[in-house]
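Researcher: I'd like a candidate sequence for this fold, 99 residues long. If you have to choose between options at a position, lean toward the conservative one.
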């Protein structure tokens, strides 16, 4: 009988281990930013990108713009698309500047 208790205890410990891994994955997934793709949000992100480029007064990469505007790269790309459509940006050598 002692063996069955040990076996059950070992089985219970093994069952707990995968749950811990699942918790870690969900904690990592919670860190990802959710970007709302709508006209209002795109306009706000375009304003953030425009202000970052205006303040820098030089050509920047997408990562540099995201860091300067304090937004994610996905949000930066959303804003860049808006500004490119309006003809307010010029791109050269993987860097972007105001037109």
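Model: Candidate sequence:
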């Amino acid at each position: 009988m002692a063996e069955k208790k040990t076996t059950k205890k070992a089985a219970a410990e093994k069952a707990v281990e995968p749950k811990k891994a699942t918790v870690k994955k969900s904690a990592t997934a919670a860190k990802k930013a959710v970007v709302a793709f709508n006209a209002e949000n795109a306009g706000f992100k375009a304003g953030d990108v425009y202000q970052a480029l205006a303040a820098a007064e030089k050509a920047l990469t997408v990562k540099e713009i995201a860091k300067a505007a304090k937004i994610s790269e996905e949000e930066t790309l959303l804003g860049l698309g808006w500004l490119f459509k309006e003809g307010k940006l010029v791109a050269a050598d993987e860097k972007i500047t105001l037109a």
